[in-house]
Amino acid sequence: WQREEKQLEASLDALLSQVADLKNSLGSFIYKLENEYDRLTWPSVLDSFALLSGQLNTLNKVLKHEKTPLFRNQVIIPLVLSPDRDEDLMRQTEGRVPVFSHEVVPDHLRTKPDPEVEEQEKQLTTDAARIGADAAQKQIQSLNKMCSNLLEKISKEERESESGGLRPNKQTFNPADTNALVAAVAFGKGLSNWRPSGSSGPGQPGAGTILAGASGLQQVQMAGAPSQQQPMLSGVQMAQAGQPGKMPSGIKTNIKSASMHPYQR
Amino acid sequence: MEAPPVTMMPVTGGTINMMEYLLQGSVLDHSLESLIHRLRGLCDNMEPETFLDHEMVFLLKGQQASPFVLRARRSMDRAGAPWHLRYLGQPEMGDKNRHALVRNCVDIATSENLTDFLMEMGFRMDHEFVAKGHLFRKGIMKIMVYKIFRILVPGNTDSTEALSLSYLVELSVVAPAGQDVVSDDMRNFAEQLKPLVHLEKIDPKRLM
């Protein structure tokens, strides 16, 4: 008798720890779903599922173990019902059940399904009993056939999408092209094949060999050395600013070159 | 007679301190259809828009280390559309927390004598190209998928030659400075285009 009680206690403990594990992983999975849904990856969801399924399996094993006494033979009787708040109960249920009253006890100590569910189950059992063995066999066979057909279709689809999945593995983009295109829009790399090779783009200061007649800027630069702080001033404007000297030649070149610009031809 | 002061730094301060956030990638010609298809699904429900533009890039070389660059763009397939003058600042890569390249930008619509005006100011044309492709929008994001054509005879946009066998894909947002959050949206959008196209922040300086 005492041994039996000990066994019951041990298996209850085992059960409790299994359920606690399950609860923890459920909790963390729910947390993940609620807080990390935006960066959650499918493999990690599958991992969580695998964990849960494994723990459920262990729980089942514990329940079915031969040393586990049949819990259904145990009777639980509520000794005291009280409408008052029970802090102990509150703590043990992690704040889920504040009172142990006549309202909640039927829910928590229920061992049978809801009356409606019980009714439905009964209905199903009588339905099943009414069909003859032959008819049942036939239904089973047709269901099996449908299932295998479906399975075949799904696996075929899978194979096809896998072979289709190989196609995207074929390159859809080329990083070298990306670089070439970005360089082209950024500073015209590879665009001006009519310019002498070796001419500079922006950002390569001082290396500019400029197509003859493309611009008179270099002359302006030299002539307009005092205008260091105002590089945007055109030659004409600099002349207006009253800087004598070599200026006029700069202006001349500028005007001439502007009218000769290749684009305007 | 004194010359009127010329505003040297048209982009700092004032009301026009806008930044362009940019991600770039490319797609090979044969995968263009798939990309267009996906973009039509992802983007705002609008009529598919195409464009054919001619862009000319002008330089003004001062004594500073780098020349001043302006881009003039005109539509070749929409007669009467205004020209587009654009200034782009130096791109900043930023750190890992910002998912897009950022550069200062100023966009202005202009009349068609823009090139003459720039020439008069002393700019010279550095290079030009033709861009032809598709435009999509999603909220404030703009997605451009276009092919770049080299212009064989300067100024003649009739004889062109494709630069590569790929289309350039650009995802951009123009927003006031400091709105780095938009780059998060851009990153999310770029994720959805994988593995078809990998949009990244590409530092053009690396490619010089």
From TrEMBL, chain A:
It is found in: Nucleus. GO terms for cellular component: core mediator complex; mediator complex. InterPro entries: Mediatior_Med8_fun/met (IPR019364). Its main location: nucleus. Residues 220-232 have a biased composition (Polar residues). Component of the Mediator complex, a coactivator involved in the regulated transcription of nearly all RNA polymerase II-dependent genes. Mediator functions as a bridge to convey information from gene-specific regulatory proteins to the basal RNA polymerase II transcription machinery. Mediator is recruited to promoters by direct interactions with regulatory proteins and serves as a scaffold for the assembly of a functional preinitiation complex with RNA polymerase II and the general transcription factors. This is Mediator of RNA polymerase II transcription subunit 8. It comes from Otolemur garnettii. The lineage of its organism: Eukaryota, Metazoa, Chordata, Craniata, Vertebrata.
From TrEMBL, chain B:
InterPro entries: Mediator_Med18 (IPR019095). This is Mediator of RNA polymerase II transcription subunit 18. The keyword Ligase does not apply. Component of the Mediator complex, which is composed of MED1, MED4, MED6, MED7, MED8, MED9, MED10, MED11, MED12, MED13, MED13L, MED14, MED15, MED16, MED17, MED18, MED19, MED20, MED21, MED22, MED23, MED24, MED25, MED26, MED27, MED29, MED30, MED31, CCNC, CDK8 and CDC2L6/CDK11. The MED12, MED13, CCNC and CDK8 subunits form a distinct module termed the CDK8 module. Mediator containing the CDK8 module is less active than Mediator lacking this module in supporting transcriptional activation. It is found in: Nucleus. GO terms for cellular component: core mediator complex; mediator complex. Gene3D superfamilies: Hypothetical Protein Pfu-838710-001. It comes from Saimiri boliviensis boliviensis. GO terms for biological process: regulation of transcription by RNA polymerase II; termination of RNA polymerase II transcription. Keywords: Activator, Nucleus, Transcription, Transcription regulation. Belongs to the Mediator complex subunit 18 family.
